[in-house]
Amino acid sequence: MADYDYDLFVIGAGSGGVRAARLTALGGKRVAIAEEFKVGGTCVVRGCVPKKFMVMASEVSHALEIAEGYGWTIPDATFDWPTFIHAKDVEIGRLSGIYAANLGKAGVDLVHGRAVLKDAHTVEIIGKGRTITAEKILIATGGRPWVPADMPGIEHAITSEEAFHLPELPKRILIAGGGYIAVEFAGIFAGLGVETTLIYRGPNILRGFDDDVRAHLAGEIEKRGIKVILGCQHTAIEKTETGLVNRLENGMEIETDIIMFATGRVPYVKDLGLETAGVELTEAGAIKVDEFSKTTADNIWAIGDVTDRMNLTPVAIREAVAFHETVYRDNPMAFDYEAVATAVFSQPPVGTVGLTESEARHSCPGEVDVYVTRFRPMKYAFTGSDERVLMKLVVDATSQKVVGVHIVGPEAPEMIQLAAIAVKAGLTKAQWDAACAVHPTMAEELVTLKEKQTPANVSAG
Ligand code: FAD
Description:
CATH class of the largest domain: Alpha Beta
Radius of gyration: 24 Å
Largest sheet: 7 strands, mixed
CATH architecture of the largest domain: 3-Layer(bba) Sandwich
Strand content: 15-25%
Number of strands: 21
Structural class: alpha/beta
Helix content: 25-40%
Shape: globular
Distance between the termini: 67 Å
CATH topology of the largest domain: FAD/NAD(P)-binding domain
CATH superfamily of the largest domain: FAD/NAD(P)-binding domain
Bound molecules: flavin-adenine dinucleotide
Number of domains: 3
């Protein structure tokens, strides 16, 4: 066997790369990992974690409104953006440091810089005059925001990456997109008092989610003050003396201070030298892998967002574990993408696991039973808020298995993690109902839903 510098070289120290590198080094292999920005990757530095801090900062305004209903008077409540951004950045720096320290403790060599492939066993660290060889290579370079580069004025728009570091809180923001990042940031800014408009070209937000969830959430975020414009494309952005003017294809012009494009993400494969190593891409531009995350090159694997399978942090981590088991522990393991729970940290938030109603109607052999409830949460009893919770169970009528759970409302992300255990385990509706309710909670509805949705009661909510 050729003498390589390392047994494994990982490109990208994000969710997937860090886990794979640590496990492999702890297993006694010589491992190095390259990171061109900050250790921790998108999730820790410019994704899940800072986003959740921003959601939590924003939700305080809602808590203050509720507090009034409960008899509290909180005079002069004000929000200071720079104070919050500083606190968030200190915490992100701390977390990134912990990730780097944990790599060191596991015996992984951290290489700061951009790594590109020179051949199937060699990477170059750009600008450092250094090449490193490895027996095996793992690509975990993640994704990047996509914007319509040919749209006039697009250079005036920001993406989620800059939204985490705005020097000041704008008075007005316009967010383009209808996916979870667009909806989450719309909620963040609206909660912080920013006049927020969400514009999406499709017929409703959150494409791919259950239709009841999409309709319910669109209504709820409008109640929270977000102006939602659907079925409309942007044609140009123009900078004026008073702000940015966003032109839409229907002739509308909207003036705002910041325009944020959250119009999707693409695998980060640019100039990575994939062709020199024999690593092929899919038609959509992701790294082509088999079920064990192996690329078209014999000694190269790829995991996480760069493979565009299911772009979530816990999935990238599970793919890393499966890679390690397969390649270094003689235990071929393919991650199972079925019934992965996910949350949208909108306000109110969404939790979802399993099949949407329409997916179930396509894939279940027989009928599908649907149980839906909409109600005002107890928390808002004194507040005058007409915000409503949606809970929906999708059941395969033949097997009686609960194949989908969809929740919109406070704590939905926390609830769905537990519901995911039952869906993954394939429990039946009767087994769900056998669990005694916890009272008074919202979640008790999940084990007490009795009435199936029928065409006659479908609009009762
Ligand atoms: P990443 O975490 O993106 O890591 C890739 C790393 O590789 C980066 O650090 C990058 O700098 C580095 N890199 C790239 N190329 C090179 C190179 N050539 N040389 C050296 N280093 C390189 N997921 C959830 O599960 N829950 C959420 O709530 C959630 N919220 C999100 C919010 C936002 C705004 C965004 C953008 C994403 C969010 N995600 C969320 C998705 C999640 O962040 C990703 O799925 C996850 O980070 C993917 O991990 P990864 O290892 O594939 O890549």
